[in-house]
Amino acid sequence: MWRRVKRSFSISAPKLSVRPHIPWYLRWSLTVPFVLAALGLAWWAYGSGLELAGFHRGETQKELTRLREQVAKLGIENTQLSSQVAQHERQIQIEQASNQETSRQLKNLSDENVRLQEDLAFFQNLTATHGKAGELGVHRLKLERDRMPGEYHLRMLLVQSGQRVKEFNGSYQLVATVLKDGQRTTHLFPQDASENAQFQLSFKYYRRIEQSIQLPQDAQLEGIQVRIFEQGASEPRVRQSVDLS
Questions:
Q1: Cα–Cα distance measured from residue 68 to residue 76, given in angstroms and rounded to the nearest whole number
Q2: Which end of the chain is less crowded, N or C, counting CB atoms within 10 A of the terminal residue's CB?
Q3: Does 11 score more than 80 pLDDT?
Q4: CATH architecture assignment, domain 136-243
């Protein structure tokens, strides 16, 4: 302990330095200008370096503004072009639908023309053969599948031969032979609660008939028999069958 006290007051004691006290705001007022000047010098050096490298800040800002305006203009043009494309697509769809309808009408007219030519040839042959007066016949009997599953379409032409024939009044029935679950059954058309339900007929020389029938989808149609009844008769005057083509 004595040695420590002696050392503090002897010649080997630590030196004491005395400095003048400077307030903090004076120190900052002297330091801040140098810091700002250094930052300004660095910023100037950075800008000068960019200009020396060919990068001009003002021109770049103008170019950026021009590019933004061009992007906005292209966006407007893109919206207008998209609207025009949508209009053209709708127009094309309308034209395609119109073309399809025209094609369908042309096909129907062509089919009708072929049918009329066949009718003309048939009636020419019929008038040339001079069949028995009042004889009733079923001609051009055809059975086809229709568009919907289980739907079938029947066509036939009823003809009374002779020049002076009476008007035929009667009816007809369709008896369909159907194979379902390995069993063969018959279906009567028209389908009615009455057993004597029939399609009515009235014509003098000829009558074209087109009739659609509907069967269950799991039923297989084998053929149809056409039965033509004279008015008041219980037995058919004509029977004729046709298979599915």
A1: 13
A2: N
A3: no
A4: Sandwich (2.60)
